[in-house]
Recover the amino acids of this structure.
C-alpha cells in the first residue's frame, strides 16, 4: 500500500492538497520534516519550523535545504496538474527563518511535469551496493541537471577520491557518536520495531543492516558506552559503517551553491532533489550523507557543535573541501552517495499534522 502522505492520497482535498502531499515527500535530515505547510485554495506556503531544528542544522541551513526540496516537489505536482504559478521566497519573516509560497496559476512545464511519478518514487536507499564506475553519460546528465537549477555538482568517482572521502566521513561520524548532544539527537531519530511514532525519523530497517550490525547499533545507543570511548580517546570503529558504504559507492555527489544565505540553501535543496530524482531514474540507489561539519561556516559554529572535537572537525571540513574542490564562497547543500543496488527495503513515512488548511 502507498505510504501516508503519498500524493495519490493527499492529506487535504483539492489541488493544493495534492501539492502539499508532494511537498511533504521531500527528504530532510533525520526525516524530521522541519516544516509547517499552510494551504489555501489559491496557494501553498512552506515555513521552516524552528522547533524542529537540531544541533547539526546550524543556522537552519539544513532546514532550508529541506524546504527547497519540498518546494521543488510542489512545483513538480503543480506542473503535472497545469496549475504552476509564481514562487516567492522570504527570509526572516514573522518569526519564521525562511518561507516559500507557491501560488496556483494556469501554467505547466513539460520538463517538471514528467518528474511527477519519479518524484513520488524517490527514496533513501541505504543498501551498500556493488562498487563500480559511474556511467559517464549519467555523470554528465546529473551535472547538467544541477547546473539547470543554479547549483554545481562535483562528483567524486575515482578510487583515490572515494578512499579519501571514506576516511573523512568516517572520522566525522566518530565525532558525532562521541559528542553527547549529537549522539542523543542521532539516536532520537531512529525508530525501532515497536516504537509508537513511525511517521518521522528513520526506521532502522531502512539502514539495511543484518541482525549482527543491528545488535551492535543497539549497544551504540547507550550514552554511557560513548562516554567511556570518549574518555579513552577510542572509538575509531564507530565510523566503519560509513567508511564501508562510501567504498561500495559508484560516486559521491556534492551539490553546492554560491552563497550561504538561507535562500541560497533552499535553492540548493531544489537542485539536490532534482539530482536525486534523476540519479534514481538512471537506476542508482541514493543515500544522503551529512557529516557533522556540513552546515557549519565558522570555527565558532564548529565549537558550538562539538567543543571537544572542534579542532578535528575543522581539519576534516578543510580536507573535504580540498578533496571536493570547493572554495570559501561555496556552500554544500548536501552530499549524496550513489550506488549500484536494488530498491530500498522500507520507505520513510511522513507526518500529516505538519499541514493545515486555511480558508484564505
Amino acid at each position: 500500500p502507498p505510504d501516508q502522505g503519498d500524493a495519490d492520497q493527499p492529506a487535504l482535498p483539492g489541488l493544493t492538497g495534492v501539492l502539499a502531499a508532494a511537498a511533504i515527500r521531500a527528504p530532510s535530515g533525520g526525516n524530521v520534516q522541519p516544516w509547517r505547510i499552510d494551504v489555501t485554495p489559491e496557494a501553498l506556503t512552506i515555513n521552516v519550523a524552528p522547533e524542529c531544528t537540531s544541533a547539526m542544522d546550524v543556522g537552519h541551513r539544513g532546514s532550508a535545504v529541506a524546504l527547497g526540496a519540498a518546494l521543488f516537489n510542489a512545483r513538480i505536482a503543480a506542473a503535472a496538474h497545469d496549475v504552476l504559478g509564481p514562487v516567492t521566497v522570504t527570509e526572516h519573516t514573522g518569526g519564521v527563518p525562511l518561507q516559500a509560497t507557491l501560488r496556483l496559476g494556469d501554467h505547466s512545464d513539460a520538463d517538471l511535469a514528467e518528474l511527477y511519478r519519479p518524484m513520488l518514487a524517490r527514496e533513501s536507499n541505504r543498501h551498500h551496493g556493488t562498487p563500480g564506475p559511474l556511467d559517464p553519460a549519467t555523470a554528465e546528465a546529473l551535472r547538467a541537471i544541477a547546473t539547470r537549477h543554479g547549483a554545481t555538482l562535483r562528483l567524486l568517482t575515482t578510487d583515490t577520491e572515494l578512499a579519501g572521502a571514506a576516511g573523512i566521513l568516517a572520522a566525522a561520524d566518530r565525532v558525532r557518536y562521541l559528542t553527547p548532544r549529537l549522539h542523543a539527537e542521532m539516536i532520537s531519530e531512529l525508530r525501532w520495531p515497536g516504537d509508537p511514532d513511525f511517521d518521522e525519523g528513520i526506521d532502522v530497517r531502512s539502514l539495511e543492516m543484518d541482525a549482527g550490525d543491528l545488535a551492535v547499533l543497539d549497544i551504540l545507543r547507550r550514552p554511557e558506552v560513548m562516554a567511556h570511548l570518549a574518555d579513552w580517546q577510542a572509538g575509531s570503529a564507530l565510523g566503519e559503517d560509513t567508511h564501508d558504504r562510501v567504498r561500495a559507492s559508484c560516486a559521491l555527489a556534492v551539490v553546492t551553491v554560491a552563497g550561504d544565505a538561507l535562500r541560497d540553501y533552499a535553492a540548493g535543496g531544489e537542485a539536490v532533489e532534482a539530482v536525486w530524482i534523476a540519479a534514481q531514474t538512471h537506476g542508482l540507489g541514493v543515500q544522503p550523507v551529512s557529516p557533522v561539519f556540513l552546515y557549519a561556516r565558522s570555527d565558532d559554529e564548529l565549537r558550538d557543535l562539538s567543543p571537544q572535537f572542534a579542532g578535528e572537525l575543522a581539519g576534516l571540513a578543510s580536507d573535504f573541501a580540498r578533496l571536493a574542490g570547493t572554495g570559501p564562497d561555496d556552500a554544500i547543500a548536501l552530499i549524496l552517495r550513489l550506488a549500484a543496488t536494488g530498491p530500498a527495503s522500507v520507505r520513510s513515512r511522513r507526518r500529516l499534522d505538519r499541514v493545515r488548511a486555511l480558508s484564505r
User: Anything to note?
Assistant: Confidence is low (pLDDT under 50) at residues 1-7. The longest strand covers residues 330-339. The longest helix spans residues 61-80.
